[in-house]
Amino acid sequence: MTGSARQRSVVPFVVVGLRIALLIGMVASNFAASTTDALQRAIIDSACRDAPDKQACLLEQEGKPVLEIAPEALLGYQVTWLSGLVGVLATFAVGAGLVVLLRLSGGPSGNRTE
Amino acid sequence: MHIPDGLMYPATAAATGAVGAGAVAYALKKSREELDEKRIPIVGLTAAFIFAAQMVTVPVAGGTSAHVLGGAMAGIMLGPWVGTLVVSVVYLVQAVGFADGGITALGANILCMGVLPAVGGYYCFRALTKLLPPTRVAYLASVAVTSWLSIMAASVLASVFITIGGPLPLAAFPIMIGIHALVGILEAIISTSVIAAVLATRPDLLTDKERLPSSIPAVVREKAA
């Protein structure tokens, strides 16, 4: 009950973790590969499986949106440092905020730390 | 692996949406019962980290790129239902705010990339750590194996949704699974690295403390009892 591990604050851990997440989202994401992802690859490969000229089909498909009906926002979306910043902070806020709301709506008092 | 709008039949989208909503509701209920105040920011942090990690796609093979899912990692770190809640938050923010994954496919994405890896991964990890000796190496090896299996399972379920429950030919099935066998290696490396870092710095924040390696101080391992 009085163990030091129990009393350790999570704040430094969260601050460091959040900095790492922001670094990944804002800096490392700029170096993300722009090639098709695995699901898109499966769609393209299966579409070209029976094509007479498979190479030409693959070239044609890779130059196109994966799905013609995909929303414009998806097709024109570019990863930037700003989307990393907004996304990381929004996800943190939604995740933590949701749990705070859950606690306020009646979590078990026995689990409270102080 | 985010399924976009239009890649599943409407009936599949509706059914997966309903089941996904039920799973999230259950995750909310379980999280309310299980979470203490100390772990509230950890939930937000894990979600934020997974969001950021998913932004970084790396080349895999044959002109294909991939990113981590993080579902098994969240389940192992926080428990199956808190983990499910964490990854559901990620997919919700991605779908609503960033058009990454379709709104109508949100239920399917939560099921195959959230519920299955977090819940299935958690129980797979528990089974492995029960079989193996309580060492740090065995603990991290269990994380790695679980992470790889979670990707394979997720790709199978996503393939079912888009082929049997969607317009794609069954030929997409082996392609998806083949590519994700490689993606799973990336997932295993990232998840194991993250959990190794938490194990080294704050093992008290991990769930299932009785499964922690015997090298972790007893005061931490016995806290759960």
Architecture overview:
The complex is a heterodimer of chains A (114) and B (225). By secondary structure, chain A is mainly α. Chain A has two domains: 9-32 and 79-105, no CATH class; 35-71, no CATH class. Chain A is 59% helix and 2% strand. Chain A has six helices and one strand. The termini of chain A are close together. Mean pLDDT of chain A is 74; it is low at 1-5, 65-76 and 109-114. With 225 residues, chain B is mostly helical. Chain B has one domain (10-221): Arp2/3 complex 21 kDa subunit ARPC3 (Orthogonal Bundle), CATH 1.10.1760. In chain B, 70% of the residues lie in helices and 3% in strands. In chain B, strands 1-2 form a two-stranded antiparallel ribbon. In chain B, helix 3 crosses helix 5. Chain B starts with 9 loop residues before the first helix and ends with a helix. Chains A and B meet through helix 1, helix 2, strand 1, helix 3 and helix 6 of A and helix 1, helix 2, strand 1, strand 2 and helix 4 of B.
Secondary structure blueprint with pairings:
The complex is a heterodimer of chains A (114) and B (225).
Chain A: H1 4-7, H2 11-26, E1 36-37, H3 38-47, H4 54-62, H5 72-75, H6 81-104
Helix pairs in contact in A: 2-6
Chain B: H1 10-34, H2 40-55, E1 58-61, E2 64-66, H3 71-78, H4 80-98, H5 106-131, H6 136-164, H7 172-201, H8 218-221
Antiparallel strand pairs in B: 1-2
